[in-house]
Amino acid sequence: FYSAHITKLMDKLATEGVQFHMNENTTVIKEQGDNYTVSTESGLEITTNYVLDATGRRPNVNGIGLEEAGVNFTTRGIQVDEYLRTNIPNIYASGDVLDKVIPKLTPTATFESNYIAAHILGMNKNPITYPAIPSVLYTLPRLSNIGVSVDEANTSEDYKVIDIPFGKQMVFEYKNETEAEMTIVLNNDKQLVGAAIYADDAPDLVNLLTFIVNQKLTAQDLNKMIFAFPGS
Q1: pTM for this one?
Q2: What is the structure's pLDDT at 232?
C-alpha cells in the first residue's frame, strides 16, 4: 500500500488509542488468567486480553494424497506451470494452495478455476495471464490500490503522479470523510496504470479503477463519459 496513506492511517489510529511497536519479533505468548502476556526478543512485554495471530496461513498440502499421486509441492504450496498444471499433466491446482507470487485472494482463486475449466475444455489454450489485481486493507478508513504503486511511480520518469483530495465533495463531506483522498498514476501515454485510495469507500472505488486500468483507458477516454452526480 502507498506509504503516505499507511502513515496517515497509523497517525489516525494512534489518536484513537492504538499503540504500534515496530520491528518486534514475538518469542512467547503466555496465558495468565483472563489475559495474555506477549514477550519479544527486545525484552518488551505487553499484557492484553486478546491476541490476534495475523502472520499468514500455510497451504494445506499435507494428508491429501499429493505424495501418493506424485504431485510436486513445497511448504509454499503446490508447484504448477503456466497452465496451472502440476507435474502430473491431468492434475491442476488453483487458489491459496499454489506456490505463487500472485496474491492469494478469493477473486484470484475464482479466476484461476475458471481458467482451468476453459483450458480443460479446449476453450483457452494459452498460458494463464493475470490482469491487474486490486488489494484492500479493511481498516477504518480503508486503503486500496491497483496497478503500478505510487511509491514506484515516484521514482521513475515513466509515470506522472497526481494527488486528488476529494474529501470536500458532498458525498464524502456529509459522512465526515473530509480526509478522503486518491493518488493516481499515469504513464507517458496518459493511461491510468495505477492508483491508491484512502477512504471508507476505497473497496468500491478501486473496483471502478480496476476496470479502467485493465481496459487501458486514458484521461481523454474518461473525459468522454458522464458519471452520476455527486459521486463523480
Answers
A1: 0.85
A2: 58
Residue-wise pLDDT tens digits, 199-218: 999 999 999 999 999 999 98
The answer to whether the beta carbons of residues 231 and 173 sit under 8 Å apart is: no
Q: Does domain 135-219 have CATH number 3.30.160.20?
A: no
Distance of alpha carbon 32 from alpha carbon 186, whole angstroms: 53
What does R_g of the chain's alpha carbons equal in angstroms? 22
- Pinpoint the residues of the chain covered by CATH 3.30.390.30: 135-219
Q: Indicate whether 83 pLDDT > 80.
A: yes
Beta strands in 9-154 (DSSP E): 26-32, 35-40, 45-48, 73-74, 77-78, 135-137, 142-147
pLDDT 10s digits, 117-156: 999 999 999 999 999 999 999 999 999 999 999 999 999 9
The string over 195-223, giving b where at least 16 C-beta atoms fall within 10 Å of a residue's C-beta and e elsewhere, is bbbbbbbbbebbeebbebbeeebeeeeee
Name the amino acid, one letter, at 123: M
Tell me the backbone φ, ψ of residue 68, rounded to 5 degrees. Answer: -65, -35
Q: How far is CA 121 from CA 107, 110, 114, in A?
A: 21, 17, 11
Distance CA(98)–CA(106), nearest Å, equals: 13
The DSSP bridge partners found for residue 28 are 39
